[in-house]
Amino acid sequence: MEETRIKGAFQKFYRNFPRQEIERAIELFACFGLSQPLFTPDLSKDLIDNISLLLDAYPTIKGQLAPHNEHLLWAFATGDRKIENTLKKSFASSTLAHQALQELIEADLLHKIPSREHYPPRSKGRKRKRRERRYRIQHKIAFSRPFYRFWYRYIYPNEALILSGEGDRLVSLILDDLEHFVSLFFEELSNELLKERFQNHRSSGSYWDRQVELDLYLELADGGAVVGECKWKNSKVCKQTLNSLKKRAAIAGIEPTFYALFSKSGFSNELLNSQCPQLLLFDLEDFKEWSDQEVHRKREKRPYSFEF
User: Fold this and answer.
1) In b/e form, how buried is each residue of 33-69, taking b as 16+ CB within 10 angstroms?
2) H or E stretch at 4
3) How much is the average pLDDT of 18-44?
4) What is the architecture, at CATH level 2, of domain 187-290?
5) pLDDT, tens digit (0-9, with 9 covering 90-100), for 255-274
6) How many Cβ atoms sit within 10 Å of the Cβ of residue 216?
7) Phi, psi for residue 142 in degrees, rounded to 5
8) Model confidence pLDDT, tens digit, residues 125-155
9) 290: Cβ–Cβ under 8 A, 6 or more apart, which residues?
10) Is the pLDDT of residue 213 over 70?
11) 174 and 154 in contact (C-beta within 8 Å)?
12) Does residue 308 surpass a pLDDT of 50?
């Protein structure tokens, strides 16, 4: 979903939950966000119950959501989302592949995310190696609605389980993969929160090149930069994550002003007690600021994610 829509859509969704249920709101939106009119989740029920409701409505939804080239949507929902990689695996003809992709974009099922990688400057008098000449920067694809990604990752490829009445097996499959699935949406929300904190940013989003990937990379108007890592896991983030982020930023040639870590489950004492002025820590308490409900007691964190 495009950045201009994601924050507002989630905030509207979050209004249906008590302030403290931010984790449940994120998980349900990652799976069923913007699913209407195809499906209306019951927000009084948990994720498993809503998956069951979805499976009951499968024949109706399938009849309404039946574009051409659904196998390509499945490939983007389950792979690395890089366009050329995915098209080569899905089609024998490059022309037909790009035509199919364009149709899905025009149908508002997908949209393109341009890479922020740049080709290295050419050295005068030096001939580039064949591998360098053949390398092509790859853009990525995102689904226009979280629900589409959920459908084509789990529901579409498992029709046999649904029709044979083995919905429980499908639910188990989804739950086993849920942390990984929600992580991408958590990155998108984290990007929006970081943009709030750094309103002088020139560009934002993830970053990838031929060597590394960064969950978050904000370029600031003053020439500075923020790189970030997001973890949607049931365990605390430790210093190893920060060290890995620093190494990948160095490989990408980025010299960050700040390192931002986002965690569903908090941080190790070593990170919480860190005196590093470049380190910013964000957990679910920060996302609760998007609630319309008044907070009665604000929890203090050290170092706390700063506010302007």
Assistant:
1) bbbeebbebeeeeebeebbeebbeebeebbeebeeeb
2) helix 3-14
3) 96
4) 3-Layer(aba) Sandwich (3.40)
5) 999 999 999 999 999 999 99
6) 25
7) -130, 150
8) 666 666 656 668 899 999 999 999 999 999 9
9) 7, 10, 11, 14
10) yes
11) yes
12) no
* 299 phi-psi bin (left φ>0, alpha ψ -120 to 50, beta other): beta
Give pLDDT tens digits for 165-200. 999 999 999 999 999 999 999 999 999 999 999 999
User: Amino acid identity, residue 17?
Assistant: F
Closest CA to 109 of 152, 61, 60: 152
| Residues 186/232, Cβ–Cβ less than 8 Å | yes
Q: Taking a C-beta distance cutoff of 8 angstroms, is the pair 265, 285 a contact?
A: no
**Phi, psi values for residue 34, rounded to 5°:** 55, 35
Instruction: Spell out the CATH class of 3-123+137-177.
Output: mainly alpha
Q: How far apart are CA 290 and CA 140, in angstroms?
A: 28
The domain locations on the chain are 3-123+137-177, 187-290
Nearest to 81 by CA among 169, 6, 188: 188
- Helix (H, G, I), strand (E, B), or coil: what is residue 141? strand
Residue 248: its H or E element? helix 239-251
